[in-house]
Amino acid sequence: MQKTGAQILIECLLKEKADVVFGYPGGQVIPIFDAIYGSPLHFILSRHEQGAAHMADGYARSTGRVGVCLATSGPGATNLVTGLATAFMDSIPVVAITGQVPTHLIGNDAFQEADITGITRPVTKHNFLVKDIKDLARTIREAFYIASTGRQGPVLVDIPSDVQRAVTEFIWPENIEIRSYKPVQHGHPGQIKKVADAINESKQPVLYTGGGIISSGAYKEVIELAEKADIPVTNTLLSLGSFPQDHRLFLGMLGMHGTCYANNAVQNADLIIAIGARFDDRVTGKVDAFAKKAKIAHIDIDPTSISKSISADIPVVGDAKTVLAELIKNVKKNSHKEWLEAIGKWKKSNPLSYKNDEKLRPQYVIDCITKLTKGEAIVTTEVGQNQMWAAQFYKTNRPRNFISSGGLGTMGYGFPAAIGAKLANPKKQVIDIAGDGSIQMNIQELATAVLNNINVKVIILNNHYLGMVRQWQEFFWGKRYSGVCLMKGSGCPDKCNKPQSKKCFTYVPDFVKIAEAYGAVGLRCKNKKDVISTLRKTLSLNKTVFAEFIVEQEENVFPMVPAGKPLDEVMTSLA
Amino acid sequence: MRHTISVLVENKFGVLARISTLFAARGFNIDSLAVGETENPDVSSMTIIVRGNDRILEQVEKQLNKLIDIIKVIDFKATKHVERELALMKVKVDKSNRTEVLQIVKTFRAKIIDVSQSSVIIEITGKEEKVNALINMIKPFGVKELSRTGIIAMGRG
After folding, report:
1. Contact residues on chain B for A125, CB-CB shorter than 8 A
2. For B76-124, what is each residue's pLDDT tens digit?
3. Least enclosed by CB within 10 Å: which of A94, A117, A537, B119?
């Protein structure tokens, strides 16, 4: 049957089961929007293309399916870049469709033209410019295939408006074959045997698992391996939730703001089995001093991740779930009583904690969220202190329940990601844990949430600061709080380290009024005694809610390993 | 360490940009790059000459392999291979030195492919060192223009 390019695109998206598409219209995608009109495609209009990209990303992280976003040419397309880079750094399957000026105008500096395939080349797994309508269906099929296989990632498809308007026979390519793209699934049996032998011989092993566990769905295999060989497990930020938090073998997160005992275990291990993790510098600390006593076994689907920063003694290229299934068969049942006792002592001497006094501390708010939701809610985070406190204190035993921008550290990510996650999981409670700085980066998506009845809760931990940078300035830059006070106005003194001054503004912005202006519910809590009741009310309302908690202004995230220091040089307080 | 890397790629627009972006993003300078169609018109061959330590080059090779449009990557470091480059140079000549230039060209088994009253164009193919040697010999006469293709390579046998 003859169809326009725009109609073919919609058909392809429906065939790929992209049940929700997030986006924003513009001149060069009007044919596509015309094809959406009256189609079964569920389209969500964001208020900024960056929001649309993060929504698609949140949808993908919470389901494992490909998230789709759509934008026009030029500024619409360039506004997607941060969202694509976020998905790229964390290996999230997203397909971005952009409109482009007509083919005859490409390269002419036409109105709203941008070389978006050129611009996004470093932040996408792959991208396409479709110059012939005959290539369109196959290209969309390839885009979804590339995004969702191997090391997953974002793929962009740029479609000129004349290609959207052109007409051809729609032929859906059932099979896909890309000569130059053959992701490895199965690990080399000899290498897997070597890892198994190393595990069987090891006295002090640690399993260090990353986002690859989530994307390959290898949760059960990790638990089985850990229990069979009696190995403690530490998660990266991206894999939190993939291992039960209350499991006797769980060490919590490692790295800069990881638990002292996870970092101690890594530094004293004789074998690290890294699975689907990439030795990010926030994890390793000083590379030369990372796990010096340990042999490193590294299992990853992406060969470029192996030996990139930490040299692997036993590399295994393959899908985590497939490799682990083979590994478990070769691993002997074991017990590491002494090793676990040593870790137990570290757990007791340096537990993850905060001062539980009368003050309203952000960690307490997150603790209460865990208690009230029993860890069943999907929590997204913004970036900064709020993110690290959420990682430390929101305890979930379910994969895809903790969603955060790890690699790129994108402020403004959490709220739109929460909207995407809620649309994909309408029956689940979805909560964005935010700071007052981050939430202002994509606050316009309140309109998207309210008008689409998207019941997400935004918990704003308001300390009137860009808290993480302020923390670094306090620790390492002589408390010179430069450019971090969100209350600083023209009447403020040039140098100000007294945030509780009576001259300070009270609320800028007034988040309660902002919520109300958009038709959402705004709540404010200033006292510790009111936290539970405010949270209960927040969670019980079937509406978009901004719940603001005025927390201790100079609360810090501990433990902290200063950047570039070894993991065992940890700060647990400022004293 | 000098590496000669041969890359077979899909013959599509944008592929060269992908590869050069990959090198540029890691701060590598490409010493030489030559691209052309292979016996299969859907496939192009690129020969890239780049310098770097083995560990970094191993990463580059892995990263190249990761690009969707790349079919095969070979680092000729440990493989017997031949390398060739083509250069054209327009050289100032007059009656007094034309014979001398022709003698040099003959010695290098190069060719004169254009002659005028005041200049000749010399064509040479060979290893990079041979091309450099001829250029050095010709320089004193006055090289008006020089154009080199970059090196192409092929495994022996």
Report:
1. 68
2. 988 899 999 999 999 999 999 999 999 999 999 999 999 999 999 999 9
3. A537
The C-alpha of B40 sits at a distance from chain A's nearest C-alpha, in angstroms, of 14
Q: Are A84 and A156 in contact (CB under 8 A)?
A: yes
> Which pair of tokens denotes residue A339?
């090793």
For residue A44, with 0-12 CB atoms within 10 Å meaning exposed, 13-18 middle and 19 or more buried, which class applies? buried
pTM value? 0.95
User: Closest by alpha carbon to B91, among B139, B130, B128, B134?
Assistant: B139
B40 residue type, one letter: N
pLDDT digits (tens, 9 = 90+) for B19-49: 988 888 877 788 999 999 999 999 999 999 9
**Hey, how many other C-beta atoms are within 10 angstroms of the C-beta on A349?**
10
Nearest to A180 among B14, B21, B71 (CB): B71
Strand residues in B1-157 grouped as ranges (E) = 2-10, 30-37, 43-51, 70-75, 81-92, 111-115, 119-126, 143-148, 152-155
ipTM passes above 0.90: no
Neighbours of A540 (CB within 10 A): 10
Angle at the Cα of A422 from the Cα atoms of A417 and A426, rounded to 5 degrees: 170
Find the residue in B nearest to A143 (Cα).
B68
Q: Which two tokens stand for residue A165?
A: 């308007």
Spatial distance between the Cα atoms of A321 and A214, rounded to a whole number of angstroms: 10
**How many degrees, rounded to 5, is the angle at CA A473 between CA A467 and CA A476?**
135
Name B126's bridge partners.
B85
C-alpha span between A144 and A11 (Å, rounded) = 14
What is the pairing mode between strands A233-235 and A205-209? Answer: parallel
> What distance in Å separates the CA atoms of residue A239 and residue A212, rounded to the nearest whole number?
8
- Spatial distance between the Cα atoms of A397 and A380, rounded to a whole number of angstroms: 15
Taking CA atoms, what residue in A is nearest to B68? A181
